[in-house]
Structure formats: C-alpha cells, structure tokens
Amino acid sequence: MDLHFTEEQQMMRTMVRDFAKSEIEPFIPRMEAGEFPREVLTKMGELGLMGITVPEKYGGSDMDFISYIIAIHELSKVSAVIGVILSVHTSVGTNPIMYFGNEEQKNRYLPKMASGEYLGAFCLTEPGAGSDAGSLKTKAVKKDDHYVLNGSKVFITNGGEADVYIVFASTDSSKGTYGISAFIVDKNTPGLIIGKDEEKMGLHGSRTVQLTFEDMKVPADNLLGEEGEGFKIAMANLDVGRIGIAAQALGIGEAALEAAAGYAKERVQFGKPIAANQGVGFKIADMATASEAARLLVYRAAQLRAEGKTCGKEASMAKLFASQTAVDNAIEAVQVFGGYGYTEDYPVERYFRDAKVTQIYEGTSEIQRIVISKHLTK
Ligand code: CAA
C-alpha cells in the first residue's frame, strides 16, 4: 500500500505537528486539571482544522479524508483529548449534516461548524442502550410543525460545550431500528438539560455528560434525512468515525513507543542504557511492530474512505487493532519507565489512562469483532 503523502497532506502534517507543539503541549496541565480546551479549539478553527473535509462553499478547508486522519493522528500524539474532541465534532457531529442534511440545514450549520464557532456532539448512547444502540428508548412524537422529544442519553462527548447535537430518537417503536430518526438539536433548545459531567480515568479536559430531554420541542425542519433513517445515519457515520478513533489510538500508541524508546536509550542501570537489555529492547521492537501494523490499517481504511469506497470492515479492523496497540504500548511504556512511569512527571501514565477508552467508545472491541465477522459471513 502506498503511504506516500501528497504535498498538501505533508503540509497538513507539518502544520499540525507545529501547532501541537506550540499551542497544545503547553495547555496539557490545564486540561489535566479539568479545563475544557476552548482556547485551543478557537485557534484550530482559525487554522481550518474544525472543518477539514467540509466543502469550501460551506466555509470548510475542502481537504481530503486522509488529511483529516493525519490531523487526528498527529494531534493525538500530543493530546488524545484534542484528538477525540475533533474526531467527534467532525465524524459524528458535522458529517451527519454534511452527508444527510438538506441544503437549508447545510447552509445553517456547516459554516459555523467548520469555523469552530459551533462545536458538534453525537447523542446515541442511553443508560439502557450502549452496544445495543438500536434498543434506544428516547421518543420523538410529531405535533404540527415540531417533534416533542423525551428521554435521556449518557456518555456524550463534547456534551455541554457543544452547540449542535445530533440526537437519535424513536419516532415509531413498532419498527425497531427502522423507526429511529435523527434530529439536529441546538444547545439553547428549551427542555435540553445538561446533566452530570463524568469523572473519568483519563481524557481529562474532555467532556462526557448525561443529557435529558424533557418535552423538548424540535422544529420539524431539524429532522435529519427521513423519518426512520436515523439508525442508518448513525451506523454510516460511525463507520467513518471509527477511523478517527483508530487514528487517535494510533497517536497514543506511537507517543508511548517514542517515549519508551527515548527513555530506554538514556536511562543507565548496571553501567549501560537499559535499551541494551533484550528484556527492554524486545519490548520496544514489539511496540514498534504493532504501531507500524496499526498505521497501515488506519491509513488503509482512510484511503478507502477517501476513494469513496465502503470501509466499514476496514474501519473496525483499524479501530480494533490500533486501540489494542495503544493500550499495550502504554502499559509497556510505563514498565520501561519503571517507578518514574508511575508518576505524573512523565507523560506515559497519561497515555496509559487515555488509551483504555479507545477500546470502548464508538463501539467496543467486541462490537468491532461483530461488525468484522458480519462483513465476512453475511
Ligand atoms: N451502514 C449503514 N447502515 C447500517 C450499517 C452501516 N454500517 N449497519 C447497520 N445498518 C442498518 C441497516 O439498514 C440494517 O438493516 P439491514 O439488515 O436491512 O441491512 C439496520 O441498520 C440494522 O442493522 P443490524 O441488524 O446490524 O443492527 P443491530 O441492532 O444488530 O446492531 C451493531 C448492529 C453493529 C451492533 C450496532 O448496534 C453498533 O454499532 N453498536 C455499537 C454502538 C456504538 O458504536 N456506539 C458508539 C456511540 S458514539 C461514541 O462513542 C462517540 C464518542 O463519545 C467518542
């Protein structure tokens, strides 16, 4: 597979690397203390990073999907928090409107989402509907020129900070997944109640909230696609979203590898750098091999997507493997650092805490296996 980036893609990589070093790295202590990186996102908007694949006519950067994946990958090497905020904003916040919205909806939302003025969120998961997303209970009842939504959602990334919420609700419970519809909900809609912000193991600084809809009136104009198309919209956007999370995991795994290799060359014990011991050298070799395999899977899925081909199976494979690599590399990096790895003086304990969720959100590793096996056996 050809992994030679075009000049435009290389420029994106250089720009994002420079930005991450100068603007994100210094912000990490503030995110670790719980601050949402609004300032960073504003600057990302100015650089065109909040609408990388949005067409120019809607105010976006009009770049290809591989450039978007390069951005998530490189940003996540420095901060997995920025990686997930951008991935959710783009893949499952903006893209549903871009691909399923009508012209009026696109004109209303895309320019502001592409500039970073509006942040996006995706509201599928409920207390009783996680992996079994199709069993959601939130109801939308049509009345005159609007729908009335009642229900609740959990684990909503960007929730509370977001301005635009893609909400999935049942408009006809007798039809199962074919009775689910998607709505674009503005933050200030009466009846949208932002609940608890979860205290998480990692990804400090990102928001993960509960949402409740209490007789929330959503204009009928905000129905995304047709009634009953919601589950398809969710699944289609998750197919693509999973490549973004895979790229985030790839970034975390590579950061852990680079930190471990760097430390192993410098740390001297028994009169030589610890890298000279095979017990450490072999760890580095395994981490590098897994990272390389993850990189190929991620960019292979991204290339298929960029060419407009179906990529659901490849996206799930990339996420399954890259997330396992992120976790394995982070664990091994802490081990290479020894006692120092367990302190907050080095970033590897953060990689360790941030890596785990990549095996959980946007479909657990078990769900990725279901998706892959369904593709191979249907
Ligand atoms: N693309 C388009 N349509 C699709 C699709 C896809 N990839 N997959 C399914 N569909 C549609 C089809 O129309 C299908 O009907 P047909 O069989 O007639 O084709 C219909 O949906 C129902 O499909 P299934 O019978 O396969 O549905 P299911 O109920 O068995 O569920 C599942 C399938 C893959 C397990 C799905 O429920 C799933 O992906 N679960 C995981 C949920 C998830 O990823 N949640 C993430 C939340 S968002 C998040 O995490 C963001 C964040 O914070 C970072």
- The helix/strand order is HHHHHHEEEEEEEEHEEHHHH
Average pLDDT rating: 97
Radius of gyration: 21 Å
Structural class: alpha+beta
- Kindly report how far apart the N and C termini lie: 27 Å
CATH class of the largest domain: Mainly Alpha
Q: What small molecules does the structure contain?
A: acetoacetyl-coenzyme A
Count of DSSP strands: 10
Strand order of the largest sheet: 1-4-5-8
Number of domains: 3
Give unreliable regions as ranges: none
The proportion of strand residues reads: 15-25%
Helix content: 40-55%
What count of helical segments does DSSP give? 11
The second-level CATH architecture of the largest domain is Up-down Bundle
CATH homologous superfamily title of the largest domain: Butyryl-CoA Dehydrogenase, subunit A, domain 3
Which helices and strands appear, and what pairs or packs with what?
Blueprint: H1 7-24, H2 28-32, H3 38-46, H4 65-78, H5 80-100, H6 103-115, E1 120-123, E2 139-143, E3 146-157, E4 164-170, E5 180-186, E6 192-197, E7 208-219, E8 223-224, H7 230-266, E9 268-269, E10 272-273, H8 278-306, H9 312-337, H10 348-355, H11 365-377
Parallel strand pairs: 1-4
Antiparallel strand pairs: 2-3, 3-7, 4-5, 5-8, 6-7, 9-10
Bound molecules: acetoacetyl-coenzyme A.
Acetoacetyl-coenzyme A (CAA) binds at residues 84, 88, 92, 122, 124-125, 131-134, 157, 177, 231-232, 235-236, 238-239, 312, 361-363, 367, 370-371.
Domain Acyl-CoA dehydrogenase/oxidase N-terminal: 6-117
Organism: Sporosarcina luteola
Family: Belongs to the acyl-CoA dehydrogenase family.
